[in-house]
Write a structure and sequence with these properties.
Chain A: One of its GO terms (molecular function) is transcription coregulator activity. Chain A: Component of the Mediator complex. Chain A: Keywords: Activator, Nucleus, Transcription, Transcription regulation. The complex is a heterodimer. Chain A is mainly α. In chain A, helix 3 crosses helix 4. Among the domains of chain A are: about 50 residues, no CATH class; about 70 residues. Chain B is mainly α. Chain B is elongated. The two termini of chain B are about 70 Å apart. Classes of the chains: A mainly alpha, B mainly alpha. Chains A and B meet through helix 3 and helix 4 of A and helix 1, helix 2 and helix 3 of B.
Chain lengths: ~220, ~140
């Protein structure tokens, strides 16, 4: 029994038909679909390659949860909780300013309601439930507002990330260019010293190892 | 650090916890006031605070509540992208995408230049050493 429940709690293995998804079969299924042909009797397994239709209705079940086909934030009213702030008149609820204002109002109401709870309880403790219910509704409203704000914040974060990336890359470019010009300047000054006084420079460079292979000299090479 | 919204939600939870703590304190530490003509009740479970203590703690608890609320307001004010519409955001993302691509191109160019310089330096060192050896041989 224990063994059974252990097995049933394991992640299920892939469906057996995954073996039919060979390149050959996929191509054949595509051809059949293009020609609208019936699946021949001898190749019934090709049916597995046709994706199933989307279930009817707006939701589906998966791993014990109900999911929406179209991702959207469920409305408070749908969950049986009165919405205390004015519903957004902009599509997708995209008016951050109004949301912030509503948020501030709700926080103030929250404080006031707490004060009222304390007041009510000091007079008649039995009457607390109504006020606690109010606080609950306000809190749910606040959290809902915050969650509605999330897509907005995500976009804003993305913008910030991209700006940082551009900034980093620009700095990298500057750094590369700086080092390059530094090296160039150094070589130029060395060359000048070399040309000016060959003898003095020579013994300083005695430690240079002989090259493994001699490369062709470039036309810019001032040594030649 | 968590993002602003998560911070806000955490602060809210803390605020509600403070509500609870405040009520709990009042519940367990209040003094007993007798009804008219009766003796004051006692409760061995309750730890009655002195008037002074009680007042101070209530002051402290309410100050904490106000501070937490101020913190929440500060967080609300610093929510990112207030007053920017979705269209503006998306346009900005697209623009940044283009900029990112062009900057990347520029960077590759710079790296190529750097590689060329490196190769040139290599050649320089090689030919220089070569000349050095030959001059040594001659000497």
């Amino acid at each position: 029994m224990a063994e059974e429940s252990l097995i049933s709690s394991l992640y299920p293995p892939p469906p057996a038909y995954y073996k039919y998804f060979t390149s050959e079969n996929v191509n054949r299924a595509k051809e059949l679909e293009a020609s609208n042909g019936e699946i021949p009797e001898d190749a019934k397994y090709l049916e597995f390659l046709t994706p199933p239709r989307q279930p009817e209705g707006e939701t589906y079940r998966s791993f014990g949860n109900v999911w929406q086909f179209n991702d959207k934030i469920p409305q408070l009213e749908d969950m049986g909780i009165p919405q205390l702030y004015k519903p957004s008149d902009v599509p997708d609820g995209d008016d951050s300013q109004a949301k912030i204002l509503a948020l501030k109002k709700l926080i103030k109401s929250l404080l006031l309601n707490f004060l009222e709870v304390v007041g009510v309880m000091s007079v008649d403790p039995k009457e607390f439930s109504l006020k606690v219910e109010h606080i609950r509704t306000i809190l749910i409203n606040i959290h809902h507002l915050l969650n509605e704000y999330r897509p907005h914040q995500s976009r804003e974060s993305l913008i910030l990330l991209m700006e940082n990336q551009v900034e980093t890359k620009k700095n990298e470019i500057l750094e590369i260019k700086r080092v390059c010009s530094e090296v160039e300047d150094k070589i130029k000054s060395l060359v000048e010293i070399y040309v000016d006084g060959k003898a003095e420079v020579k013994h300083e460079d005695d430690e240079l190892q002989p090259p493994q292979e001699v490369r062709s000299e470039m036309d810019v090479d001032p040594v030649v | 650090m968590a993002d602003r919204l998560t911070q806000l939600q955490i602060c809210l939870d803390q605020l509600v916890e403070q509500f609870c703590a405040t009520l709990h304190y009042v519940d367990t530490h209040h003094e007993f006031i007798p009804a008219e003509g009766e003796e004051a009740m006692t409760d061995p479970q309750a730890t009655v605070a002195t008037k002074e203590e009680f007042k101070d703690t209530i002051d402290e608890l309410s100050t904490d509540l106000i501070l937490k609320t101020r913190q929440i307001f500060a967080l609300i004010d610093s929510l990112p992208g207030a007053g920017v519409s979705q269209q503006e955001q998306i346009k900005k993302v697209v623009d940044l995408q283009k900029e990112l691509e062009s900057v990347e191109e520029e960077k590759l160019q710079a790296v190529r230049q750097k590689d060329e310089l490196l190769a040139w330096c290599n050649d320089l060192v090689t030919s220089f050493s070569k000349e050095l050896i030959e001059s040594k041989k001659m000497a």
